[in-house]
Every structure is written in structure tokens, then in C-alpha cells.
Amino acid sequence: MSDAYEVRLVETGGTVYERMAIGVVIGSFVIFALSIGALFEWVAVDGTVSGVSTAIYFGGALLVLGVATGALGAFSRWSGVRTTPDRSPGLSTVGSQAILWTITAAFVAGNTLGLGALGWLVAAFVGLLVAYLTITAREDLGATVPAATFVSFVGVLVLTGVISPTWTWQPAAFDAIVPGQLAIPLLTLVGSILTGQSSATAYAGFGTRGRQNGAFLLISLVVLLTISVLLFLLAFVFERGILVVLENLAISAGTVLFLLAAVLVLSVRYGHVNPATADGTETLVSFVSLAAASIIGLVGVVLASAIATKYTISGYAVTIEPTAVVGALPGLVAGLVFLDVLRRSGGSWPPDMKAGHPVIRALHIVLGVTGAIVLVEFLVGTTLGLGGIGIVPIVAIVVGGVSVITLVATWGARFTGRALPSWIPPLTWTASIAAVTFVVCCLHAIATGDSVGGTVGIAASGAVDWPFVMNPSQGLSIQKGVMPAMVGTIWIVLGAVVFAVPLAVGAAVFLTEYAEDSLFTRAVDIATNGLWSTPSIVFGLFGLAFLVPRFGGTPSVFASQLVLGFMLLPLVLITSREAMKSVPDEYRDASAALGVSKWETIRSVVVPASMPGVITGVILGVGRIAGETAPLLLVLNGPNFPTRSPGILSSFMVRVSLQPPFVHVSNPALLERASALPYQLYAVITAGVGAEESFGWGTALVLLGVVLAFFAMGIASRRYFRRKLHQ
Amino acid sequence: MTESSVTTTAANRTDSDRTPSSDETTTGESNERTKAEWREHSFPGDPVLSVEDLNVWYGDDHALKDISIDIPEKSVTALIGPSGCGKSTFLRCLNRMNDRIKAARIEGDVTLSEQNIYADGANLVELRKRIGMVFQHPNPFPKSIRENVAYGPRKHGDIDRGLVPRLLGRDDKDREDELVERCLRDAALWDEVEDRLDDNALGLSGGQQQRLCIARCLAVDPEIILMDEPASALDPIATAKIEDLIEDLAEEYTVVIVTHNMQQAARISDQTAVFLTGGELVEYGDTDQVFEDPRSQRVEDYITGKFG
User: Are residues B259 and B286 in the same domain?
Assistant: First the structure.
């Protein structure tokens, strides 16, 4: 009779042993997080906490964790705690413990005892001994005691100051110095992973369940490490760059209010869930967004009172001017957010207004005409008006008037309890129309450079003054600015995407849908993969030698767009092809059985179904090409600190002539040298002026922001297509 | 006679050289005999589709051998037989879906309203509009229910939707709504999806998805609907719904259905064709007659479960 029947099927938990194990797991997690913090110098190892060196705390924690882990193994072995250990801890545990102890022994023997070559003998002996002891022990001892001993040993070393922040290790074999400041966090990191895994294994009583638990903990710690490296990188750049980027930023309170209002509306929208049906995540999201909403509300009140009392808020070189004007570009963003939220939450057209309310109808028509006028204004560049008075402001006043009347009438009717006059349109519809008008006015201001309104209204310029982002740099130490480089980067990336994506998708369609699986397609696949791993400087050299002489003879924006497009091409092709391969054949059969041609099927079933995959490729590729410096040195090669942005849109020239090809389209700006963010960053850093390092960090932060913005657009559009496919 | 040949085959397994040939000759004889018999048989209604000496090869594999059959109008014709007997291949020959398989070679005539669909210059678009198909696994597109039903007519230009038609003032929204409702009603799905036509079709249950596929097929207004084991991936309740639907459809359409399930064939079909291993059509006739008094011994063995 085996003792299998003594293992209960249902463990209700809560024994002292389990509580102790879970305590060690939590402790390991905390120490792990702290050691990461210490590695990134957020936690100062050489500092003191209440008069005691931080290193002492690390040592003490390691000792406690080590002893507790050992105790768990001992309890399991001798105190009759119900556990299910195997007879041996298994080869992987044995191997890792042996390696750990061999290295430790080699270190102690070679460094501390100074045994020289004899040290390796000692190390090998210790390693074999540990391996033997571990493999012969029952799992509960083998999986805990060697690791626990190691962690306790390190803990004692740190606690007694043998390894202190000022201690250094200079191995004779190679030219590296490991200071205690680095050694202590690293050892703590290793120690917390060891005790965490052992105690997690012990918590579930060893055996299969225990090892599953331990592996799970190990994986979560590794994930935590990965995420923290990423966050550290972002935070590091942000910390160094943010003050440079924000230097002398002046923004009108009205603009800030509008942007805050957009965030407020979004938070309220996402925070608005039914508490009866919300699950945990929804409740959390709701809580966070409503908290954000209340904070934004408070800030809004402060800003409003600042406008009222003409009080200028400033700090960290940022100034908020007490004016109520709204910048056209931020206003446009906020207006689009309002429109989107209104569209999603707006009610449908009331059934009793079948033919459409005359007021709303009229406003629709007026807005349609105004929109067309603004489009013309974009082309002409000046305000269109009647007798010196612009059309857009008049429309704005009319719509504003109707909105105010509707608001007052609706609320008045609500408070007094009277019926609403029949010609008053529903509030949500008026709100939508007001939001559209606002967007149109912002576009008008951007197109013509004329403000709408006076002290309260939409300002075409002056509402936001952001020197670092909005100005060109005048060379080192004169003025810091990234505008031309930023515009250059955006144009180059957009051009590359426009050039590469249709080609790549077309090639993927051909290879997946038309070409049969053959030597040819396999050769293309291999060639594509090879192209993707070709060094970027080679692409640059190709561009310089082949493209530049053919397009204007000088390095140019256009050549850069093509070169980066070539680099983007293989990745988008690979991902599109995979996505199209994974579209089930059943869709193609179903479409063919309806008599739909192959091309129509590809267009309306295969390509839409593979859109998320295509966009994934674009996202990954844009991240790479936006930061590409090497090819741009060759094919863009503009001034390090250009004084003006490449005006691609405004320099399109169309000439009509009587000779073929009758229409000449040219764009000189596209064929000129320019700058890009990574290119300018490289120039700033290699200029060798120490004081300009902060300029470099600022540029890096803007570059990061541009890449993240592209990234966000990609994620949003992928989400859009996924929802279309699955909802 | 056929039974004895089967037992002989089993007994002489080691003698692999002669047995297949002897088997072939016997089955060939029975095939000739039954073919002559069912040719005499007259069905109610006119034949809408007639197949003459159809042979199909997949590479070197002779998958269908000399199939000749007339399918009468506005009725349900069931094709039954063991796995691999070629009944699905036969079905896919009727709307030339086998053209999509590169290795397939097809010989013979399939006549639809006096035109051979395998003639040069056959219009596949028109053919597949007139002969629709429903597959074994429900395969709605990852689009909304409305778009699924309207897919065929939209792609054939019978219904114009989108920005350009709207700007030109000839948006067919009303006609489309009407069509979608009619097809979904005909497919007995309307009541279940009436209020969520713009939801994704992949959110429907398996049975609903299959009825949606039938609705999608009806939307191009076919004369004949081919169904390839349409209920084999569904649970009994969904299967019962599909079977009811097929019987209703047979009032207006000609349905040809492949099924593994002999009870299903007996329940819903008017004629039954029995294919047996080797790609032969062994018996074809009224369902009652085929199931109660089959002419061929092999068919009787198959139907009673002794073989197959």
C-alpha cells in the first residue's frame, strides 16, 4: 500500500509552513525589486537609512531569506509537514547548484585565499561535492538547502562588511573593476531569484506541483526584469531630456484647459461603467479614470481662476499665460476627441423628427459649405470672405448662438418643467454641430494663419510657444531647437511607408495567392529575409551610389525616403505574407463558390483579414527606420543645424505646357538636403561640446516621442482592423 | 455475387496480384447493370442537371469512374457512401470547384439547361451564381452578418453600396436591407439575428453560422444548392434545424446534399445516390426504394452496416 492515499486531494491551506513559504516568496519579490532599483541607482547602496548603511539591510534581508528557505526544506524533511517531494531534486537543480557553488568556490579560492591554479582544483571539488550531496538528498532538502546556504553565505559577507559599497574586485584575468556598489545589487538579484524559486517550490509541497510553482515564479521574475529594463531606458531618457525640451515653454491657459477638457471627457467616458456588471479590471479602470477626472477638474478650476485673476503660473521654466485663447493645433486635437466621444455616446435621431429638424438641416448645409471653403483656403492660403469679413467667423458666431439658445432653452425647460418649443433641436445634435464648427474653425486658422475671435477664441499663433520643438537650432550654444529635424524625420518616415507598404503588400499577394509554391517563391523568401538583415549602411551606400545621381545629384529627402523604404520593404513583405498565409482557405472557397473572382476575393476578404499582420510589420519597421542614422549620413547629409524645415507640401509645383507630357509636377524641397532627428542627435553628440549634452538628450526624447507617436498610430489602426474582424 | 467477391478478397489477402482485378470486373459488371436499371427509372420533374460519363483523376488516382446521373428539379438528392468514395469530389465537379485543385483532371459532360459547363468558354461566375455551395464547416467571412449575406450581390454589382454610389445618389441600401431580410428569413435565421445585423458573424453559434452560409448562398439567387455534409460539424439540435431548412428549400431550389449520415439521407431526400469505394456510383433511385429494396447487394450491405 503506497502512501498516495495520505495526500489529501483538497488542501485548505493556512498552515504555519505555508504561511512561512509565502512570506519568503513575497520577501524575495520585494528584495528582487529593490535590487533592480539599486542596479539602476534609484536605491543608493552606499546611502544610509536611519543611520545604518543600506548595504547592511540588503545583507540582513539575504540572510533572513536564506535561513528561512533552508528552514522550509528542513521542516518538510523532518517535522512531518504534508509535502510530496520526489526522491531526488532532478538534474537541472543539481546542475545549477553545482555551477553556482563551483563559481563561488573558484572566486573564494582564487581571490581571497590566493591559491592560484590550485583554486580550480578546490572549485571542482566543491562543485562535485555539492552535486553529489544534492543528487542524493530528497527533493525537499536538495531544492532548498544548497541555494539557502549560498544566499545566507552572501548575506553574512555583506552584513559583516566583507563586501561593502567601497569594496572592489579587480580580477587579474581581465581588465574590469567590479565595485561593491554593483556587486551587492547583482548578488542580491541572484539571491532573491534563488530563494524565490525554492520557496515557491516549497509552498506547493515540492514534487510536480512544486516545480510548476517554482518555474512560474522564475518566469514572472524574468518578465519583471525585462519590463524594468524597458521602463528604465524610457525613464532615463525622459529624466535627462525633459527639462531641455520644456525650456521656456509658454502656453495659454485656454489651450491647457481645452486639452484637459479632452482628457476629462475621455476619462469620464472610460470610467463610466455599470458597477453592477463591471468586473475587476473594469472597476479598476473606472476608479483610475474617475480619479484622473477629479484631478483634472481641480486643475481646471485653478486654471480658470488664473485666467480670471490674470495670474501667471510658472515653474520648471514653463509658463502658463493667463489668456483664454486656444491654439489652433491643440484645439484641433481636442475638437476631434470631443467629436469622437459625441459620436459614440450620442443618441440616434429622435423618431418624431422624421424629415430632419429644419434648424439642424440648415446648419448641416452651412457647415458643408464652410468645410468646402476651408478646403479651398488650404490650397489658396488666404482667408476667403465677403467684403473683408471672413465667412468662417460668421458661421462660428451663428452656430455658437444657436448652441447657446439650445442649451439655455433645454435646461430652462428641464428646470421649469415646461415643454420644449418644437423648433429647438436636441442638445446632443447641437453639441455635435458645435464640435464640428470648432474643428472647422481650427482648420481655418491653420490654413490661413488668421485667428478666429479676439481675446477669447482660436489663435493661429502665439497661444503655444514651445521653443525647443517649434524653432530651428541656430548652432550650438545659441538656440536649441529640433523643428527642421523633426519635420524631416516625419516626412522621411511617411515617404518610406507610402513607398514600401503598397509594394510589399502587392508582392505578398502575388507570392501567396498567385505564385505556386516553387523554387522561385522559396528563393524570394530567402532573399527577403536576407534583405531584412542587410546592414543599413549598405543600403545607404547603395542609395548614394545609385539613387542620388539619378534624383537631382545631391543627397535629398527623396533619396532618403526611397532608401528607408527599401529597408522597410522586406519586413512588411514577410509579415504580410505570413498574415495572408494564415487566412483560412475556407474563406477563399466560400468566395469562389459565390462566383466571385479571385482578385475580388483577395481585395475584399484576404487583404482585410490580413491587415492586422501587415500593420504589425509596419509598426516594427517604422520603429527601426525612424531611428536609422547610418544611411542618412550618406543620402540625407544636410546641414547639422538647418535653419528651416523642408517645406514639402508648399513646394509642389505644377506647370502645364503644350508639349508632352503636358503636366509637369516638381517639388524642389523633396530633392534638397535636410536633417532628421537621429542625424541631428549624432551631430550634437559628436560635436564634442560637453555643455551641449543636454541638447542631445532633449533631441533623443523628441525622437522617442515621434517614434512612440507612430507606434501609437499603428497600434490604434491595428486595433481598429482587429475589431472589425472579430466584433 | 458481390458479397462472395468481397469475402473472397478478404480470404485471399495474401494473393494480392489477382484479387483487385477480379474485384474490379465484378463491380464493373454490377455498375453496368444497375446503371441500366436506374436509367429506366423516371423521376417527377425535369432533370435540371445531367451528368454524362464523368471521370476524375487526382494525379494517378482515378477518383470517379464513369458517373452518369440526372438530377431532377426542386427536390433533394442525397449522395451517400463511405469515406473516400468520391461523393464530395462529385459534388465539387458540379460547380467546377475542383478546378481550384491543381492536380485534378476532369473528363465528361455536366449539362445545365442544355449547356455543358465543362465546355471551353464556360462562364464560371455565372455558373457558380446558378449553382451555389454550402461547405462542411461553417465558413462565414469575418465581416458583419449583413455584409456576409450581401457579399455575393455586392461583388457582382447587383447591389451598389459605399461612398461613390451615395454621392451619385444611387445607394441601394433599401434593396440590400430587403434582400438581407429575405435571405435570412429563407434560411430561418432572421428571428435570431434581426437586431444584430451589424455584429460580426464569427460571434454566432456553429448552427447559426451554417444557416448564415446558406443565406449567403441564397442571396445570389441560385437554382441549385450543393451541400457538402452541412450538418456534420453541428450538434443534434442545430442539425435538426438545418434538415428542416433543407426540406423547405427544396420547394424552390434543387438541393444536392452529401452526407455520411444514412438516417439523414433517408429523412430528407427524395432521391439517393450511393457511391462505394473506388469512385463508382453503384445505385441511384428513389430514396425509399434505395433504402428498402436496393438492387445491388453491395448497397444493401452498406446500408445495413455489414460493409463500409
Answer: yes
Structure-model confidence comparison of residues A575 and A364, the more confident one: A575
Which of B124, B135, B137 is opposite residue A595, by nearest beta carbon? B124
Q: Which of B203, B235, B250 is the last residue of a domain?
A: B203
Question: Which of 68-97 (B) contact A at CB < 8 A?
Answer: 95, 97
What is the predicted pLDDT for the residue at B21? 40
CATH number of the structural domain A483-726: 1.10.3720.10
Q: Give A244: exposed, middle or buried? Use CB within 10 Å, 0-12, 13-18, 19+.
A: buried
- CA B66 from chain centre, in angstroms, equals 18
| Number of structural domains chain B divides into | 2
User: What does the pLDDT look like over A654-708, one tens digit per residue?
Assistant: 777 777 777 777 777 777 787 888 888 888 888 766 667 778 888 889 899 898 8
Average pLDDT, chain B: 80
Q: Do B220 and A593 touch (CB under 8 A)?
A: no
- Are residues B177 and B66 located together in one domain of the fold? no
The pLDDT-based confidence of A289 (bands split at 50, 70, 90) is: confident
Spacing of C-alpha A475 from chain mean position: 31
- Residue A27: count of CB within 10 angstroms of its CB: 19
C-beta separation of A73 from A144 below 8 A: yes
CA distance A542 to chain B (A): 42
- Least CB-CB distance to A587: which of B100, B139, B200? B139
pTM above 0.95, yes or no: no
CB atoms within 10 A of CB A401: 10
Task: Report chain B residues whose CB lies below 8 A from the CB of A586.
Answer: 135, 137, 139
Q: Where are the domains of chain A?
A: 3-89+137-234, 252-468, 483-726
Structure confidence by residue, pLDDT tens digits, B194-217: 888 888 888 898 889 998 999 999
Proportion of chain A above pLDDT 90, given as a percent: 15
Same domain, B146 and B115: no
CA distance A632 to A674: 10
Are residues B241 and B147 located together in one domain of the fold? no
Q: Is residue B308 part of a domain?
A: no
* 3-state SS assignment for residue A117: coil
CA distance A156 to A174: 27
Chain A interface mutation, best of B91, B95, B126, B128, highest count of A Cβ atoms under 10 Å:
B128
- The CATH number linked to B25 is 3.40.50.300
Tell whether B97 is covered by a domain. yes
Name the residue facing A589 among B132, B135, B202 (closest C-beta): B135
Least confident of A162-176, A325-339, A490-504, A535-549: A162-176
Inside any domain, residue B250: yes
- Domain residues for B148? 142-203
Summarize pLDDT for A580-625 with one digit per residue, the tens. 999 988 899 999 888 888 899 999 999 999 999 899 899 888 888 8
Verify that B121 and B267 share a domain, yes or no.
yes
* Cell numbers for B261: 449520415
Task: Verify whether the Cβ–Cβ distance A586 to B137 is below 8 Å.
Answer: yes
Q: In terms of domains, do B136 and B51 share one?
A: yes
Are A592 and B151 inside 8 Å of each other by CB?
no
Q: What is the pLDDT of residue B234?
A: 82
B168 and B234 together in one domain: no
Asked if residue B125 is part of any domain, the answer here is yes
A contact residues 562-601, partner B, Cβ 8 Å cutoff: 584, 586-587, 589-597, 600
Q: Does one domain contain both B127 and B257? A: yes
